[in-house]
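Protein Record: Sequence and Backbone Structure Tokens
======================================================
Tokens: labelled as protein backbone structure tokens, with as many entries as the chain has residues.
Task: work out the structure tokens from the sequence, keeping to the layout shown below.
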Amino acid sequence: MKGPSPLAEVVLDVVGLVPAGALVSYGDVARAISECGVACTARQVARVMSRFGSQVPWWRVVQEGGTLAEPVLVSAGEHLRAEGVPVDGRRVPLEARRWWPDPQMVRDILTRGGFV
């Protein structure tokens, strides 16, 4: 399998910043990158996580409505519970646990990736 693209590496680096017990949505990651000048969509983030997410704490990235994706429901729920995040079926407290990366950290990641 081909390795991650430069944008995929940026996505993985941003997700790697999410602290234990915190949550972000696919759209949050895309917005953080886009707000620093590199176009990115939630769908692209989801695709990166699906292909290469095992390299980072993928279970901390959830759907915008605060739900866990069906294909990873059991495993993500186990990881999140171990970090003290309550899981109710597919639901997690995204608003209460939402984390946002420092824009300078994202810019630094983009700079290392050759985007700025």
User: Anything to note?
Assistant: Strands lie at 24-25, 61-62. Residues 37 and 116 are 8 Å apart (CA to CA). The domain at 6-110 is CATH 1.10.10.10 (Arc Repressor Mutant, subunit A). Helices lie at 6-16, 26-34, 42-52, 73-82, 94-97, 103-112.
